[in-house]
């Protein structure tokens, strides 16, 4: 796995490879380094956690399918909501090979698979990707925090459900969020103030 760390504008991007097959999660910056890291291997697809501009800037630079949740598909092109305004998105709809995933979708990855977990709240179509005890969480879950829910198609009610859902994963699961530091499910179960609050409310 290769991480392309965030900068002031764009989120973390991740390259997952197994044997000669690779998937690229949230390609937003550092195109030359991504191509170098591929080392000639086949890019099987791009995986989008959601459609905000700081996660999607480079999606048109690769000739492969782009996997995302249908509920966020329109957001790719609505610049007043996806973060591009007053600029325009750099990709064209007809040039994108969009494929839609849902909760529980499994994508073949070498001798294993990547599982899709639908986690609405930050956006309606937000998803996380689980592979080899690694959770790529986009802007849903952060170290000791959670994603914003006050943007277009966000929902506090849905975010709460999504966080509680993720916390049922095995404690040793490593969490790779779209911003800031990595963490684990076990650490968040003990230290994430949002989860601790919501879990207590759920028990009442």
From TrEMBL:
Domain Metallo-beta-lactamase intervals: 10-179
Pfam family, one: Lactamase_B
Keyword terms of this UniProt record: Hydrolase, Metal-binding, Zinc
Superkingdom, natural source: Bacteria
Keyword Metal-binding: yes
One Gene Ontology term of the molecular function aspect: metal ion binding
Swiss-Prot/TrEMBL cofactor(s): Zn(2+)
Keyword Nucleus: no
Gene3D superfamilies named in the record: Ribonuclease Z/Hydroxyacylglutathione hydrolase-like (3.60.15.10)
Protein name: MBL fold hydrolase
């Amino acid at each position: 796995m290769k991480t392309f760390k965030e900068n002031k504008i764009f989120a973390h991007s991740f390259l997952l490879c197994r044997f000669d097959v690779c998937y690229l999660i949230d390609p937003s910056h550092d195109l030359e380094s991504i191509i170098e890291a591929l080392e000639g291997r086949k890019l099987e697809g791009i995986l989008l956690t959601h459609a905000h501009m700081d996660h999607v800037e480079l999606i048109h630079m690769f000739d492969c399918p782009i996997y995302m949740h249908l509920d966020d598909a329109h957001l790719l092109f609505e610049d007043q909501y996806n973060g591009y305004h007053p600029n325009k998105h750099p990709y064209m709809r007809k040039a994108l090979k969009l494929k839609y995933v849902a909760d529980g979708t499994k994508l073949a990855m070498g001798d294993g698979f990547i599982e899709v977990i639908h986690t609405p709240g930050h956006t309606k179509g937000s998803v996380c990707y689980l592979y080899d005890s690694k959770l790529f969480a986009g802007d849903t879950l952060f170290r000791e925090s959670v994603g914003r829910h006050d943007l277009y198609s966000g929902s506090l009610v849905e975010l709460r459900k999504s966080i509680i859902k993720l916390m049922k994963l095995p404690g040793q699961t490593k969490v790779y969020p779209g911003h800031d530091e990595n963490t684990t499910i076990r650490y968040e179960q003990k230290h994430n103030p949002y989860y601790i609050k919501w879990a207590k409310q759920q028990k009442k």
